[in-house]
Input
Amino acid sequence: MAFTLIDMESWKRKEHYLHFINEVRCTYSTSVNIDISNLNGYRLYPTMIWLLTQTVNSIPEFRTALTSDGLGIYEQMHPAYTIFNQEQKTFSGIWTEFHSDYLDFLKAYESDIAMYSSSMKFAPKPDRPNNSFDISMVPWFSFTAFDINVFDDGKYLLPIFTMGRFFDIDGRKMLPLAIQVHHAVCDGYHVGKFVELLQEKINSLDTLL
Output
């Protein structure tokens, strides 16, 4: 779990970071519709988890965190995500080690699902790594906006993603995706870059495998 500390004095984002972490602590969220037409034939949830993680690992601003060691950037992130217990109508949060190879990740994902999907615990899989970020899905409805309100000290910098129920429009399958970030490390430019890169990865998925 490599974690590189940021040299604040030489960091080009120093003033922006200090403003949004000290003076006006500010998180924000946006919701976008992602075209997932190219994912026909793939299992939606694990495939999107893999693609989201791939994209997070491509953009340093989405791997920036404030830890007990200081402000820095993780070399690689792993996905932590929710799974639904059909019998109990509740959910658990688990995580899966990320693999750049899709089939290797899918195998690890299926192993975790088989082990923990019937659990009634909130977090049945132990040892969640610090270099992980949150993903969830609410497949029961679509949305045009979705806010996560984290009541902490306002210094949680890692992104949070929520997916909704996909819908069809003009022959395309669209997936609502809510993205929450901290303004101290992510501006609208970075979110726009993330959305663009994620869509590119979806469109070229066959070539990534």
